[in-house]
Write a structure and sequence with these properties.
The protein is of the alpha/beta class. The chain has 13 helices and 16 strands. The strands form three sheets. The protein has an eight-stranded mixed beta sheet with strand order 8-7-6-5-4-14-15-16, with helices on both faces. Strands 9, 10, 11, 12 and 13 form a five-stranded antiparallel beta sheet that branches. Strands 1-2-3 form a three-stranded antiparallel beta sheet, with no helix packed on it.
Length: about 400
Amino acid sequence: MRHTPIEGQQIQTLKAFYALMAQTRELRLAMVKDLYAGATADAADIGSLKNALGSLEGIPGSGGRFQLKLDAHREIEVELDYEINELKKDILYLERGEAALVTHLEEIHTDFRKHVDAGVAMLEGKKFNAFITDRDGTINNYCGRYRSSVQSIYNAIWLTRFAERCCENPIIITSAPLKDPGIVDVSVNPENKIVYAASKGREFIDLTGTRRSFKVAPEKQQILDQLNEQLKALVAQPEYEKYSLIGSGLQLKFGQTTIARQDISKSIPAEESRAFTEKLTGIAAELDPEKKNFRIEDTGLDVEIILTIEGDDGLKDFDKADSVNYLASELGLEMSRGPHLVCGDTGSDAPMIDATMAHSKETHAIFVTNEEELRDRVMGACPNAVIVPSPDMLVAILNTLAR
């Protein structure tokens, strides 16, 4: 079935770039729906993806870095590896088939087959009660800007295939919001196949399409609303607008707010980024001088301002272990009944293993990392774990299991 076409276009501004990526999201979503139902890709739709690819590759730049205008006076230099490479993979997948794509992945990733075979050997023949996974850097290749991290077609089909055939409760837990922009806006999986748990799991859309959320005390919500209004006003100022456009941008999550202070391309001068971070922490301190409501985390790229909850030893921030336990209760997952599969790529994902293991020792894990410390932490927490260096390997494992 032919869908709304994407024309070749000259992309000069960051906003035009985001608009083009939103077009690719709508087309990919429609194509995945058709393909998963057994249809074949329309040549015109493949042509639209090629037009989008050509438009991205036509952005001025050199050495893998491209120049886009923030406004009439300012430019930003960005890397577009994710956006370009995922379009190329989709076009290969649609034109030449799955085997050709796998061959390509074997060519671009060292020891691809070895890692995939190891994961399949550990998990083959299992039907998982809960499949709990992070998104970015885990089942989705990492992108420098969340708003343009549109899921690829092959990735959606492989994940959905695994979700339907190999597990009862497939859940993606992400730090990003649900919408505007959030995980819903960059995902192209068929609807009602995977639970989207956003804002570190504080809000989620279940398999019936119903949105549910973790209860937040009214007084805490009020102070977070005040913070959000101040931050929206801040990035509306010309000198600060760029922080809403680079990297994670400004994300108003449920129970948490994230704002970029830098991106992976280091587009912001270091001193300017530090000064902006100090301004953010100052705003939070004025609203919460006794530090009862906010916990602040600086990732180096983002500033995370998180509402506290009551923990065993006093106030704490809501982490992904809390998310697993909350979702287990809300969704009736019967977590004491394994096996389960947990996937992640950072230290903030490791608590998902701890929480799941506390429910059932019949827990398996696949983590995407090249960091020895995280590898050791994962292997120490979960004996049935496999470490792979690329999200492509992880989703290939899942697809192989489903096939």
